[in-house]
Amino acid sequence: MLSFHFAPRTRLRLFTISTRHSYSDNSASPEQFPPGFTFWPRYFSTKEQETLLAASLYKLDTTERPQSRRKRRNYWSSRESKSRDGLGPLTKLFAPDAMYEFEEGHFDGVIRHFREMHLSSWPVEKFQGLTSVLDKLYALCPTNDVLTHLLHLSSHGDILPHVDNLSASGSWILGVSLGDERILRMKDTENEGQEFSLALPSGSVYLQRDQVRFNYQHSIERKTCGKALGEVGHRLSIMIRDRNTSSPIS
């Protein structure tokens, strides 16, 4: 059972926002998002992102076969770690798609080309500075008793429009984006035409709670506009939600 308890939260600059709109990183206004949706477009520094991503990939890698882990070790030892043009600075931490055991489809058909795990502990002893980054992350959580989920999308992975399963969900969910930028699309299922979309740059965090958590269909799409073929990269998200006492996940 995973439960985090933290010191009192400091006051943070944030954007809470309503209605239909397309959001870019530099044009936030207080009328863009529905009540219950909060967005921090540049919450983590590049160094903090690297620490979080490295720790997350380390945990995900432990779920794969030794052959796959050995293949990646050989890959890293045979090349210099450097970013490819057109992708963000975290690209150096991702191996090519073929090096991972990505699943083609989720059991409910919503997620494609991914790997995932429910996280019971972070490897704080293996990554310098991870504890302070986690303190900063979990300080955003509205409550302390939480579940953490890691989701790694391949370069052609995406999440189709859906509303989360109410029986397995709490009242809020927090998402951290690491790696290649993706587009979040939100559509009100009860009010026709009420929808918005926004880019999720690496290091950004968003929070959905209450009505916007359960009354909005959401999806994660690849951002291909303005990119050449092969320039869409991997994305890893850290998803944190409050524990639902009726959920089978512990």
From TrEMBL:
Pfam family, one: 2OG-FeII_Oxy_2
Ranges where the Alpha-ketoglutarate-dependent dioxygenase AlkB-like domain occurs: 157-241
InterPro entries linked: AlkB-like, AlkB-like_sf, ALKBH7-like
Listed GO CC annotations: mitochondrial matrix
Domain of life per record: Eukaryota
UniProt cross-references to Gene3D superfamilies, sorted A to Z: Alpha-ketoglutarate-dependent dioxygenase AlkB-like
GO BP term, pick one: DNA damage response
SUPFAM superfamilies: Clavaminate synthase-like
GO molecular function, one term: 2-oxoglutarate-dependent dioxygenase activity
Protein name: Alpha-ketoglutarate-dependent dioxygenase AlkB-like domain-containing protein
Species lineage: Eukaryota, Fungi, Dikarya, Basidiomycota, Agaricomycotina
